[in-house]
Amino acid sequence: MRAPVHVTLISLGLLGLLWTLGAAIAQDPDMLPTPIAVWKVIAAESASGDLWYHMANTLRRVALAFGLAMSVGCVLGLIMGRSDKINMWLDPWVTVFLNLPALVIIVLCYLWIGLNEVAAIIAVALNKTAMVTVTIREGVRTLDRGIGDMAQVYRLSPMTRLRHVIWPQLGPFVATSTRNGLAVIWKIVLVVEFLGRSNGVGFQIHLYFQLFDTATVMAYALAFTGVMLSIEYGLVQRWERGANAWRRA
Hints:
Layout: H1 5-26, H2 35-48, H3 50-82, H4 84-99, H5 102-113, H6 117-141, H7 145-153, H8 158-196, H9 201-210, H10 214-243, H11 245-248
Helix pairs in contact: 2-10, 3-4, 3-6, 3-8, 3-9, 4-6, 5-6, 5-8, 6-8, 8-9, 8-10, 9-10
């Protein structure tokens, strides 16, 4: 159940109060700056345009990697869920990618492909594709066989069956993959940018980490976290509730 707006705001306010108290106790802005100090950095970076430039690059990478991971993962999940033989052969591959550390995949992509955008997008997508595949595969295995048999009796074409029979039932699983995917992908994108890109929020965090500028590191981190939370609450959770509405009917 989603918390009421006022509860969410009060909870975030308490977090800000705890942060302020911690900064007051530390009395060291180089270690823990106050919320006001971080907000001033956000305002300054926004006014200069740097924040928007780097955030736009990060969001572009998130969108491309997310789209690639969801597309490939959904296709593989459908195939593996409907064919035991294919699942038998591909399941070990999926298991390997599920357990391979994200950092290893990122480093290998940079070594094999180069320090470029293609390597960055592929590295992020590979880290998420296996998770999408497993979720969609389990969703396919829970499909109502009675509805499938009815579609076969009415001789629906494969595309019609996919669009009107299979996909609506997979809606909750796709929504779950979307929500979990965004939560994972944007964090991995920051690591990719931290290690090998020349722009983006992760790059800025790396830059100011080298300068020991805690306030600016926190400013970029919190600004981008705010954007992703807005997407989560404003879009993803609403879509997830809509995808699960038929279960409550």
